[in-house]
């Protein structure tokens, strides 16, 4: 009997699975972000071609996250205030929202659910990064992209239009990690981000120090429904975070306001 998972694997075997491409603004930023001559004017010209991302960066620059008394109304000033690396990472992150769309109404609902879940994970990671002494904007990107592998699965289901929603969901959970790694490698992201789809569900993963994948693991478990949430004592990343399993909920209570603020600011 034909299954979505089998069709996905067959498409992979024949190198016939369409992978999503980075939005143009993200591609342009990736192409120039390692250029030592990149300046605020150049980055501003790239980002201003995407009005939604420009508006988001201005919103961030005027938010309590930055705590600036004078209102920033100019994109170049926002980039100067926030920093070029920060704005480049956030612009790449927010531009991926346009990938989570489908013409099929039922698939569009699933796309929206995955985006909202990814955004919630990303906002948790953004706040956790400060506690873990990691880079918040990189943690945000890691959280947003951890389930990017679901996109080609939904695209395949849309194309064939003969699979149930239950089969779609099951296939996403089984195959998205492998596809996510393939997509992020194809996009030439560093291993610190490209490895996350395959590893964020491994609660026993050993590392000598905390990394971006640990933040995604912790954030993902935090927002899981209670009946699916793992005991914090089973998640090795908690110790690397410097927390004790018995006090994780208290730690999150202390961060709740910052996480909510991040969600309000980054929500597209």
TrEMBL record:
Specify the domain of life of the species encoding this protein. Answer: Bacteria
CDD domains per the UniProt record, alphabetical: HDc (cd00077)
Name the PROSITE patterns on file. Answer: HDOD
Q: Which Pfam families match?
A: HDOD
Q: List each copy of the HDOD domain by range.
A: 19-203
Under PANTHER family, the record lists: PTHR33525, RIBONUCLEASE Y
Name assigned to this protein: HDOD domain-containing protein
Report the source organism: Oleispira antarctica RB-8
